[in-house]
Amino acid sequence: MAEAERIIGTPDIPDAAGADPEQSDGENGAAAAEADAAAKPRGKRRIAVLFGVAALAYALDLISKMIVVAKLEHHEPIEIIGDWLKFEAIRNAGAAFGFGEAFTIIFTMIATIVIVVIARLARKLYSLPWAIALGLLLGGALGNLTDRIFRSPGVFEGAVVDFIAPKGFAVFNLADSAIVCGGILIVLLSFRGLDPDGTVHKD
Predict the structure, then answer these.
(1) Active-site residue among 20, 147, 162, 195?
(2) Which pLDDT score, from 0 to 100, does residue 24 have?
(3) Which helix or strand (DSSP H or E) is residue 163 part of?
(4) What is the pTM of this model?
(5) Which of 176, 195, 197, 203 is an active site residue?
(6) Active-site residue 162, yes or no?
(7) Annotated catalytic residue 176
């Protein structure tokens, strides 16, 4: 048998990475470069989705607050679904849903850190669901941070405009909703094992 194998010869078997052993290092390097080049446009599209979702969430929040301040503040609440849902303008110095009013500056710093972290993470983003989730977080954080900076009583201490008032629940705004939806989506993606770079792991 050994003599037969010596005469006939054994076929070349690609290595574990799928590379042909007869290919030169230069050819393998070129293939890797082509794969990287193909991945870059996909990453750019995901980044575009992230900032597109963030811009939409931010714009909706900003426009809704401008309307509320101009038309609803210092007026009676508007009933949307009887007593179950109203539009009622309030100023919230705390975090989302009115918690922690004594820590306005701290919440401002946290929002700033979240924005910086998301911007840095965007460079490694190759997952569309993660792009949507992070876009919601970014847009919501920017919306409330804008209030913290530009509204009274002062820079980094401004009160956020809230107006969505369900019965038996805290009053909130569209930025809060975007943050919560983004956070829930991130939790679901994490449970499914999907990472921001598009890889899937099973722990």
Answers:
(1) 162
(2) 53
(3) strand 160-166
(4) 0.76
(5) 176
(6) yes
(7) yes
